[in-house]
């Protein structure tokens, strides 16, 4: 998490740096800061809270041609002005994305050598350590090149030296960093979309490379100057703001009909453009959060209809587990951002074993996209709301297409549903009265979600959406599991949201709903089936579509229900407390 940017060029560095920084607010938003050069001095301004608070305290008319800036998701030390970046120690001022894991050890060494600290952060220690190294060797490139010997963990750093005020230095280890180029202007940033307002030309910085920007940009790899490829960002990731929508989340929910139709239409008659999975008899899927949940949907589709064993793993567990591989295993990595630290670490672990890897990613050119053997982009465009909606359904769409291909399904059976899918989703968005269901549940402290197999996977995501943005405690269980303990929590008025779309096991789940209703629960049913009137207090009816497409549409009502519950509760829907969209810490 955390986003860093830097700019060297014309005299409007403050404005340009802050504009870029705002594009990175999805990475963290508990404090923000900037360091800029003005009248041969480094000025540091930082504020607790959103970037807006920082902006309110900046003079955008002040002339400066160099700045670095940061938006923070707190890891070491609470969110306050002192812990906010940039940090300054001795000759060094810097911004940092990542975690210096051995900072306590380094701090002790620095204290012995006379350094004092004002913040609780690992970043201030990194800053002091670079100053300490610089006091022993005044070759800046050598000093920055050497830090990977001392720092354990991850970092992308933007660095100013107070004795060289016309330069920005930068480096990275396992946190993303790019350099943007526009004629005589240079940017550094945590991702490419941050700089697109100014340029689509960028260089990807590799681990441990050192960037020196002054009148030109020089990149060193192991102290040797390297000529790096200048890429052009070719994807359309237009972000026209919220438009007429009150929140980005609602806008992104409404973008789903087009995105899903586009992907289905793009591939359904061109399945050969998708990777050939026929040789794999086992697939492992790895992701975090909602990306893990899409993996579970993929498991149901591949196992149910393509005769392929699938195991899903949460990345933060998988990376420390003993992993078993069989011949002909494919490992799929799912990640909206393509930068999630745990998912990336799993990819690197797997690659050491020479196992085939496929990434399903939204962010073009991200680390996971670049490092996997093969990548499929979900082409969902920038997702601004922290709670994912359109990236989640786009990931499922790709998994469904892969399962369709692997199962040799006759695509004629899908065409009508695909042709209608825009209308199907639009009517789920527009024609259901979510507000009145939200009215009934928004004051509750606990809500339960149940389902079996693919419906359980959907329930997990529905429950996560609700927790993320409304802060209501919600738990999800396989429907048959509730009676093994958790049913003790059900009492008068407890909302239980059941997902029932699998006809084969409908009756089993219906029995479980009756069990909770008998104990006073309010039953809210999301289903594509008829004939369950006796278990329903509220019903959300979804159309019945082809089994590969069903999960794509069944989640839509749960996204909207969460949205309207959160709105009723007055929550900050697009930027829920404590969360960030790109999780680059472990
Ligand atoms: C965060 C986001 C989730 C996302 C998860 C994994 O928790 O809020 O929406 O599912 O990270 O992120 P990734 O970028 O790897 O999909």
Hetero ligands? 6-O-phosphono-alpha-D-glucopyranose
Number of domains: 3
Look at the helices and sheets and give the structural class.
alpha/beta
Identify the CATH architecture of the largest domain: 4-Layer Sandwich
- Fraction of residues in helices? 25-40%
CA radius of gyration: 25 Å
Please give the count of helices.
16
Tell me the fraction of residues in β-strands, as a range.
15-25%
CATH third-level topology of the largest domain: Glutamine Phosphoribosylpyrophosphate, subunit 1, domain 1
| Low-confidence region ranges | none
Number of strands: 25
Q: What would you give as the CATH superfamily of the largest domain? A: Aminohydrolase, N-terminal nucleophile (Ntn) domain
Strand order of the largest sheet: 3-2-4-1-10-9-11-15
Structure in words:
- With 586 residues, the protein is of the alpha/beta class.
- It has three domains: 3-237, 4-Layer Sandwich (Glutamine Phosphoribosylpyrophosphate, subunit 1, domain 1), CATH 3.60.20; 241-428, 3-Layer(aba) Sandwich (Rossmann fold), CATH 3.40.50; 432-577, Rossmann fold, CATH 3.40.50.10490.
- It is built from 16 helices and 25 strands.
- Strands 3-2-4-1-10-9-11-15 form an eight-stranded antiparallel beta sheet. It has a seven-stranded antiparallel beta sheet with strand order 5-6-7-8-12-13-14.
- β16, α7 and β17 form a beta-alpha-beta unit.
- α6 packs antiparallel against α16 and α11 (390-406) runs antiparallel to α16 (550-568).
- The chain is globular.
- It starts with a strand and ends in an 18-residue tail after the last helix.
- 53% of the residues are buried.
- The structure holds 6-O-phosphono-alpha-D-glucopyranose.
